[in-house]
């Protein structure tokens, strides 16, 4: 399928059908957020750009994500949000807790200074509008933290993409139970794309309008490198290999290596038993960068994520797991290992919890918490949605049920005595909102996703009639969503970000801000109402981090710290400016976007610089 947009000269389609040019200025390997950002940046700088995507669809992990970007000092709607921010506060936050001794301060400063520029660049050159929301930083109670740095993609009308919309990877199902963001209505909106789907759609349209060529089913297999640096790439498409020259540079932006058993075993201790990202992240870019002489950094790090595999759910013909996020922060649930013991604060960020789950015993090398069980009771079942099941509904078959904790443990292969002992110790203090073992519910971020009804308290329909309330919400959302979608599509096509923010931000802030004051009991509650439930949770990653070392413009460095001319990296394959520290919602995507923006801009200017 080859599509040429009416707004520009770009082409998107299969490399086997469209063929490949012999030479361009810049080749970008990967079509996720970092890749399309690099392509758009280079194209606006006047470069002829080719994007290579090994999979049949454009978008990578970004397309199925929430699409947020974590942008300190972004400056959007600060009056409506009743907030402010400074580069100094962001620097304090990012370099705190000893990270100033590990991270490159020049790279961190470049990120802080460039992130707002990148956000405005996207609004200038695409149909995307950024919507700032109330969302605490993931390490929310340390100096420099903020509750207002995450920007979410506003609605995007796929009409502007035409037939090219069919080549954008669609979103996957989410398992989020409760969320301060009113997902119950947002998820029903029709006629526009949201979240990462919207971001990729907007970036692709912007690239095509600027004349970028995007080839899917085109796998880069080797870099062309010599004494003058990297000058092109060898591409496998349609069963054949073709050489494409890149006169100004190659940008590696193809994601991590979480789908490679060889590399995850070598660098991360073991393969992932479940996958939460799309297939295709085999580590090709890591291998190619090494062959070009690049130094590797953060190779033992990942953006960790617990996952739940729901039977029958697949993507690209392979099982794809649900993310386990806010549902862990609700009361009346805990997580235990096979010994029936809690091992972490269940309500911390998914990255922090996933890292704990993947910790290996220094003696045996085993990961005792890599497979865990989320345990909850009937109160949880009757009050909260879970795995797309409404309160009180019927769970999919991977959720185990039993009348007693002992029987539940036996069904799951958990030590019964250990589970009973853990629950009996946990319950009395949890009822008081206390967790002396792991301090759950003590940070703003942990409480933000808890159970709280700030406007009516115990009189809220959420509290006394959760199932009926969910049905009423669904009916309301179904009724208003078509109209809301048409209105948002019209504003999106007008390319009026200020108007979009004026319409959405004040209301969202009023809805979400009260969650910042959730009490500890919103995140803690006893597990004491039978029957009991359990679901297996396994450690995975939304992407690995390790890849070639880069400088502050995304240029790849060799083992001596010298720039490899013509080679750049951004996203999960490089540009790991924080080496695994996850700033907040969108903290991974924004790194790829910022350094993709810088890499594309620098590559486009190499001709003027004499390379």
Summarize the structure.
By secondary structure, the protein is of the alpha+beta class. The protein is built from 20 helices and 23 strands.
Protein model, in words:
The strands form five sheets. Strands 1, 2, 3, 4, 8, 9, 10, 11, 22 and 23 form a ten-stranded mixed sheet that branches. Strands 13, 16, 17, 18, 19 and 20 form a six-stranded antiparallel sheet that branches. Strands 5-7-6 form a three-stranded antiparallel sheet. The model has no long low-confidence stretch (mean pLDDT 92). Strand 9 and strand 10 form a beta hairpin. The chain has two domains: 365 residues, 3-Layer(bba) Sandwich (FAD/NAD(P)-binding domain); 166 residues, Flavocytochrome C3, Chain A, domain 1 (Alpha-Beta Complex). The chain is built from 20 helices and 23 strands. Helix 2 packs parallel to helix 8, helix 2 runs parallel beside helix 19 and helix 5 crosses helix 6. It has 611 residues and is an alpha+beta fold.
pLDDT below 50 for ≥5 consecutive residues: which ranges?
none
Task: Let me know the CATH homologous superfamily of the largest domain.
Answer: FAD/NAD(P)-binding domain
At the first level of CATH, the class of the largest domain is Alpha Beta
Could you tell me the mean pLDDT? 92
Helix and strand composition category? alpha+beta
Shape descriptor: globular
Indicate the percent of residues in helices. Answer: 25-40%
Biggest beta sheet attributes: 10 strands, mixed
| Strands, count | 23
| Percentage of residues in strands | 15-25%
How many structural domains? 2
Rounded to the nearest angstrom, the radius of gyration is 24 Å
CATH architecture of the largest domain: 3-Layer(bba) Sandwich
The termini sit apart by 36 Å
Counted by DSSP, the helix tally is 20
Report the CATH topology name of the largest domain: FAD/NAD(P)-binding domain
């Amino acid at each position: 399928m080859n599509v040429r947009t009416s707004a520009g000269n770009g082409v998107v389609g299969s490399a086997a059908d469209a063929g490949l040019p012999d030479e361009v200025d810049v080749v970008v390997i990967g079509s996720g957020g970092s890749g399309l950002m690099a392509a758009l940046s280079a194209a606006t700088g006047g470069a002829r750009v080719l994007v290579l995507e090994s999979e049949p669809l454009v978008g990578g992990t970004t397309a199925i994500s929430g699409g947020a970007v974590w942008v300190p000092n972004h400056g959007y709607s600060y009056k409506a949000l009743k907030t402010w921010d400074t580069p100094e506060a962001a620097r304090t936050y990012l370099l705190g807790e000893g990270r100033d001794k590990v991270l490159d301060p020049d790279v961190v400063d470049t990120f802080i200074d460039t992130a707002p520029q990148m956000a405005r660049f996207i609004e200038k050159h695409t149909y995307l509008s950024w919507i700032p929301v109330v969302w605490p930083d993931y390490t929310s109670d340390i100096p420099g933290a903020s509750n207002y740095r995450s920007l979410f993609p506003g609605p995007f009308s796929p009409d502007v993409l035409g037939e090219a919309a069919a080549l954008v990877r669609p979103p996957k199902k989410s398992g989020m139970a409760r969320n301060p963001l009113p997902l119950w209505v947002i998820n029903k909106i029709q006629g526009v794309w949201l979240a990462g789907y919207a971001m990729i759609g907007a970036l692709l349209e912007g690239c095509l309008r600027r004349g970028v060529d995007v080839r899917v089913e085109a796998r880069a297999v080797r870099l062309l490198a010599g004494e003058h640096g990297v000058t092109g790439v060898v591409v496998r498409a349609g069963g054949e290999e073709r050489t494409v020259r890149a006169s100004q540079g190659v940008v590696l932006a193809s994601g991590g290596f979480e789908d490679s058993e060889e590399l995850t075993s070598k660098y991360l201790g073991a393969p992932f038993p479940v996958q939460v990202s799309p297939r295709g992240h085999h580590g090709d870019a890591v291998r190619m960068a090494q062959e070009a002489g690049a130094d590797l950094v953060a190779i033992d790090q990942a953006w960790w994520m617990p996952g739940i595999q729901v039977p029958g759910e697949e993507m690209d013909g392979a099982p794809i797991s649900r993310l386990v996020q806010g549902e862990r922060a609700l009361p009346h649930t805990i997580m235990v290992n096979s010994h029936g013991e809690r091992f972490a604060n269940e309500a911390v960020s998914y990255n922090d919890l996933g890292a704990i789950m993947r910790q290996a015993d220094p003696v045996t090398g085993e990961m005792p918490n890599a497979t865990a069980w989320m345990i909850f009771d009937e109160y949880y079942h009757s009050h909260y949605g879970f795995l797309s099941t409404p309160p009180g509904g019927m769970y999919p078959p991977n959720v185990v049920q039993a009348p007693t904790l002992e029987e539940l443990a036996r069904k799951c292969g958990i030590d019964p005595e250990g589970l009973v002992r853990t629950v009996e110790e946990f319950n009395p203090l949890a009822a008081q909102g206390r967790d002396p073992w792991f301090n759950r519910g003590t940070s703003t971020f942990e409480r933000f996703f808890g159970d709280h009804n700030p406007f009516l308290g115990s009189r809220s329909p959420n509290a006394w009639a959760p199932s009926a309330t969910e049905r009423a919400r669904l009916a309301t959302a179904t009724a208003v969503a078509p109209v809301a979608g048409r209105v948002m599509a019209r504003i999106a096509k007008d390319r009026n970000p200020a108007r979009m923010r004026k319409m959405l931000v004040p209301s969202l802030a009023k809805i979400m801000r009260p969650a910042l004051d959730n009490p500890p009991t919103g995140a803690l509650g006893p597990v004491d109402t039978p029957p009991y439930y359990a679901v297996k949770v396994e450690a995975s990653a939304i992407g690995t981090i390790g890849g070639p070392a880069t400088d502050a413009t995304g240029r790849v460095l060799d083992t001596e710290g010298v720039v490899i001319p013509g080679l750049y990296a951004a996203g999960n394959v490089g540009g790991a400016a924080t080496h695994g520290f996850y700033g907040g919602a969108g903290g991974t995507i924004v790194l790829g976007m910022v350094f993709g923006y810088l890499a594309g801009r620098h590559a486009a200017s190499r001709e003027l610089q004499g390379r």
